[in-house]
Amino acid sequence: MKRILIIEDNEANLYLASFILRKGGHEVVEARTGEEGVEVALNEKLDLILMDIQLPDIDGLEATRRVRESVPYDAIPIIALTSYAMTGDQEKALEAGCNGYIEKPIDPDTFTAKINEYLQKFRDAIHD
Ligand code: MN
């Protein structure tokens, strides 16, 4: 079981991502704004962060930069949730300090596998 923070303002996406991850045996922490997400990211023990890009206050790129000021690239994976329609978001997310991205809409059939892939990839940086 890993502890995963989801920063996502869309209730349907948040619900779906949380549901799938909990069903996959993970513990989920939820945040609905960038500021709240940064606060949680800097104060709680986490194994992975899922970062929406479009958020109501600071966007996911700014939130990622703020987390990266204190948390190095290889210390915790930040995976952007990018919209299929928003071209350029994936490159911007990587530039901001994200380790990878998953495209929305979330595909329930592949979501857990993708998350587990990232957890595996960054396992050396992740505490037990
Ligand atoms: Mn959003």
Provide an overview of this structure.
The protein has helices spanning 11-23, 34-43, 60-70, 89-96, 111-121; strands at 3-7, 27-31, 48-52, 78-83, 100-104. With 128 residues, the protein is an alpha/beta fold. Helix 2 packs parallel to helix 3. The chain is globular and about 30 Å long. It starts with a strand and ends in a 7-residue tail after the last helix. Manganese (II) ion (MN) is lined by residues 9-10, 52, 54-55.
Brief synopsis:
41% of the residues lie in helices and 20% in strands. The chain has 128 residues and is α/β, with parallel strands linked by helices.
Distance between the termini: 9 Å
Give the CATH architecture: 3-Layer(aba) Sandwich
The percentage of residues in β strands lies in: 15-25%
Could you say which small molecules are bound to this protein?
Answer: manganese (II) ion
What is the helix fraction of residues, given as a range? 40-55%
Q: Largest sheet at a glance?
A: 5 strands, parallel
Q: Find the CATH superfamily.
A: Response regulator
- Count of β-strands: 5
How are strands sequenced across the largest beta sheet? 2-1-3-4-5
Helices, by number, come to 5
